[in-house]
Structure formats: structure tokens, C-alpha cells
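The instructor's notes for this session suggest beginning with a concrete chain rather than abstract definitions. Hand out the sequence below and ask the class to guess, before any prediction is shown, which regions might be ordered.
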Amino acid sequence: MNRQELNNLHTRWRQDLRFEEPVLGKTMQFTSTWGLFSPEKLDDGSLMLLDHMEFRKADSSIDLGCGYGVLGMTAARECPEGQHLLIDKDFVAIEYAKKNCFDNRLTNTEVQLSNGFRHVDPARRFDLVMSNLPAKASKEQHYLYLLDAYNAMNLGGRFYVVTINGLREFMQRTFKEVFGNSDKLKQGKTYTITMAQKD
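After discussion, reveal the predicted structure:
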């Protein structure tokens, strides 16, 4: 490959990635960029998670580690009477999640830079917590997510996660430790969906 070809690729790779994809039967528009998780299409784990979530119209939600926003955006669409917070520690993810919420005309969303719950208003309460938990996060980080989420949830709130199968036993155990319960909703070839409820 010569210098001109590399320059052409460089110019192309710097451009935003745009695509449409159906989510729970309704098409949504996405803009992404290289460097974000699954930039060219929605990842299978997030889509599997959404297929097994229960949405209630008045739920208020938090999308923990939102990336460019699909989980929080879907919750905002499916729970129109609630307020929905999308958080990520990556400022690039926040930029694209804001754009995607705007482009999909979701007016009940807020997108915020935060390392886990650290920068979330401690007075806010959520009925729904959802996350595509990163496999490379430390044990301590996973515990922080669960403990912080528990403290920020309303009674009866649900915390849904999708993880690679290698983490399923860890998630079952930690959910039981923190919430007192754990429900494996689906185990596929690669991913497991687990849910805990705050009773």
C-alpha cells in the first residue's frame, strides 16, 4: 500500500460511521466512530439484553457505560414517562450518545460523563439499571457498580446485565451478595443475561 492509498484510508477512517438498525422491531439511527465499542453495528450482547428486559412506561433508568447509547436510548423510547440517564467514563462515547439521543428525538434523556456512579447526583433514583459489563473490568469495579446501583435504586427496581459466559457465575454470586437474589434470564453461546431486583 502506497502513501496515497494510506492517506485516502486515513481520511475515510476519520469520518463518522452512520447506520440504521432495528431495535425491538423499530428502526433507530446511530452515529459512531472508531475507538468506541462495536462502532459499525450494534453488538449482539446488547441486543440480546434488550430482548430479555421488561420495560414499564414510567420507569426511570440509567445506562451504565452507555457507549454510543443503544441501551439508554431504547429505555427512553420504551419508557416515555420516565427520565433516562446515560453515563460513560469516555468523553468520546458521551459526545456520540448525545448526538444519537438528539437524532432519534429522545427528549427524556440526559447524557453525562461519569466513572461509574461517581459523578451521578446521589439524590437520583432509578427503577431500571442496565449495563453491558466490560469483561476486562476488575472485580473491585464490578462490586462498585453493583453496590452503587443498589443504593441508587427504588424498591422493586431491576438491574439487568449482559456478560460474557465466563463471568456468569461471578455475576450470579455478586448479585446474591449485594441484592440477595439473582435470576439468570438467558444463556447463549457467548453471552449470559442476569437480573437482580431490589426488594
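Then share the key points. Residues 139-152 form the longest helix (14 residues). The first strand starts at residue 17 and ends at 23.
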